[in-house]
Amino acid sequence: MFLSHKNKAGLAISFVAATIFCLILNQLLLEHNISGPTAWAGLSSLFLLFALYFALGTTNLTDKIQQWTKGHKARSLLIPLPLLFTYLIYFFGTKENQLIHIVYVSLFLWLPVFCAMSTPGGVQKMTWSDLAFVLAIWGPIDGVLIQEAWHWPLGQGSSAYVNTTAICLTIMLAIGVRGLEGVRYNFKVQKQDWKIMSLNLNLASVCIIPLGFVVGFVRWAPLEFEITQFISTFLGILLMVAIPEELFFRGFIQNLLQKSMKNQHHALILASILFGLGHFNNDAYPGGPIPDIRYIFFASVAGYFYGKTWIKCGIFPAAIIHAIMDTIWMQFLRGT
To answer: Could you check whether the bond before residue 112 is cis, i.e. omega within 30 degrees of 0?
Structure first.
């Protein structure tokens, strides 16, 4: 039964969390004098995305999707419909997009479905269709090809919408359609996880920060500290950067590499290098060179320790130390 006690609790937590984040975002909109029906449409769309985002990690919805599509792969084509529905609320409510953007979003939602459907049933090792799946979702995001479809508000609203959509789509397809095991996407941190998280966070810091100063990757350039801004930065990075990246690079790529390679440590190293290469278009500081070999190297080192955390604890604990590293870097070591 879907509405078990656990699922009811998970759904309640999901809706409360989505409400809190949308209230925070609404406050930011009010500070920019953005309100009225347009704001309600944008926030309603984001609320539904956040609610699904959290529900996938607090209920057994993915198991239900897997049961529903088992033996009926054509049903997989219906999975993106809720995500398209949230986009249509955004599209018609904010009135800042063009009809072609519906086509872009539809391609973004359904191309990964065909990739997931083409993987032979029960196969846990990496296949060519898995690489196509990653490229279909990650490529448009990393190449900044899909963001313009979420233009509102202020011409820069894409991050929250794109990343939550990508996470929901990845989870529902990777687990629900492809049947990938061991992703470990849930919003739990066990008592024993904190020791592992602390160890890997400290090791990553020791390996990156001193050498980073030597090669000019980091520099002491603290921003004005304000506790609410610091917390909101951490939460934003956690939800919009760390969890998506940990899901893709650890829950999906490293997971498949470990099942495909005999040496698990080699799989961890390869996944870490791929994580570093995924940052080829990032700059170490505003105005810095792109690509920056230092960024790729240090991201690979950080990815190694995030990967070790994922192995022992899962996606959410790995994402927490990922977000802590990024927040400290942005607040104290990156500059403006």
So the answer is: no
